[in-house]
Amino acid sequence: MKRLAIITTHPIQYYAPVFKLLTERGNIGIKVFYTWGDNSMAKHDPGFGKNVTWDIPLLDGYEYEWVKNTSAEPGSHHSKGIINPDLIERIDNYQPLAILVFGWNYNSHLKAIRHFKNKLPVYFRGDSTLLDDTGWLKSILKLLYLKWVYKHVGHAFYVGTNNRAYFKKYGLKDNQLSFAPHAIDNERFSVPHQHEANTMRHELGVGEHDVLILFAGKLEEKKSPQLLLKAFLSVNAAHTHLLFVGSGRLKEDLVSEAHGNTNVHFRDFKNQSVMPVVYQACDIFCLPSKGPGETWGLAVNEAMACGKAVLVSNKCGCAADLVSKNNGAIFSSENINELTASLKELFHSKDRLKKMGEASALLIKSWSFAHIAGAIEHKLLNE
Fold it and tell me: What does the pLDDT profile of the chain (383 residues) look like in tens digits?
């Protein structure tokens, strides 16, 4: 059986299920090398401002090992946070046919990419885009450096339209690219939790015919939760509510800016097992991000799997692929007039929101873990 060594920092809910699925399918052999080095499942998330331990299994059903990390400040938030002196030796011991690296901007990951070029096929997975503006000098330097980086990559799995454009700009050709969509556990999120969702709405004081808009995620600048709050308050529509679910450095500011409005609600960070209920309680999910670095927005996938209308800014990497007038709306980042107009339009009819949610659920079905696994298998089996 052909073997694939996978290099990634730590177990996350968007990739561990793919590793399990690849193992279950049995078409290729895989081993995951986790480079953060700490086998504790609790990781500090700067965006949430706390240690996060996901409450769903992320290490079941596939082969993996923790690689010793000698960084003085371990973590995935900076390039020197991942230093693994024996990573290459461990991969050699596994004797794979190819390697798949998630993210190059870590000391050990880039070293592995460079080391294995011309020795093994080097595959890459990342989700960067060209959506964030940079100055001309920085753009030139970035172009030169990233073209050098991607000369070491033989094949990349792109997550969507914006990510594909990024890979093309920095030197990868059409025959070096395969579509492996950003995905979430569609089945888990689509399981109905109507009773729990209705209970949540009742506890918030949201009526059956009221419209509830949801923001769920890190309360940080790049996601622009304050813009959403300002737009919602300016609309001042009857029978509408706004719910923020999450934590982060902007929490206190948002509470203050809500001025005690009883139709604006706040709930702390919710873990993965609870999130389907949260999404199913809402009518519209909004991700108003301004970036930089909103490369996708997997919360949009989750909301769509729960059958919800979605409202996103054009700085969200997913907008080009997942959002249209059939299932929601896209507004220009930081443009409060466009966001306000979109809210007014969406608030107009709950029946229309329901149809949009149905369109979301139908579209997101094909953005699946199975699609990712199939793309990886196809590439390796044809080496």
Answer: 999 999 999 999 999 999 999 999 999 999 999 999 876 555 555 555 556 566 688 999 999 999 999 999 999 889 999 999 999 999 999 999 999 999 999 999 999 999 999 999 999 999 999 999 888 888 999 999 999 999 999 999 999 999 999 999 999 999 999 999 999 999 999 999 999 999 999 999 999 999 999 999 999 999 999 999 999 999 989 999 999 999 999 999 999 999 999 999 999 988 888 999 999 999 999 999 999 999 999 999 999 999 999 999 999 999 999 999 999 999 999 999 999 999 999 998 999 999 999 999 999 999 999 999 999 999 999 99
Q: Which residue has the tokens 């480079």?
A: 35
Distance CA 257, CA 226 (A): 8
Question: 153-183 burial by CB neighbour count: b if 16+ within 10 A, else e?
Answer: bbbbbbbbbbbbebbbebebeeebbbebbbb
* Alpha carbons 150 and 143: distance in angstroms, whole number: 11
Q: Which domains does the chain have, with CATH numbers?
A: 3-183+368-381 (3.40.50.2000), 186-364 (3.40.50.2000)
- The CA-atom distances, in angstroms, between 291 and each of 97, 139, 176, 286, 323 are 38, 17, 28, 15, 18
Residues contacting residue 236 through CB under 8 Å, at least 6 positions apart: none
Residue that has been written with the tokens 């579209």 in this structure: 363
- Cα distances from 98 to residues 103, 195, 250, in angstroms, run 16, 47, 43
- CA–CA distances in Å: residue 144 to residues 138, 140, 163, 169, 187: 10, 6, 18, 11, 42
Residue 51 phi, psi dihedral angles, 5° rounding: -75, 135
The angle formed by the CA atoms of residues 147, 153 and 155, to the nearest 5 degrees, is: 120
For residue 158, give the amino acid letter: Y
Q: What is the dihedral of CA 335, 336, 341, 344, to 10 degrees?
A: 150
Order of strands across the sheet that contains 177-179: 64-66, 29-34, 3-8, 98-102, 122-125, 155-158, 177-179
> Is-contact 38 82, C-beta < 8 A?
no
- Amino acid identity of residue 113, one-letter, is I
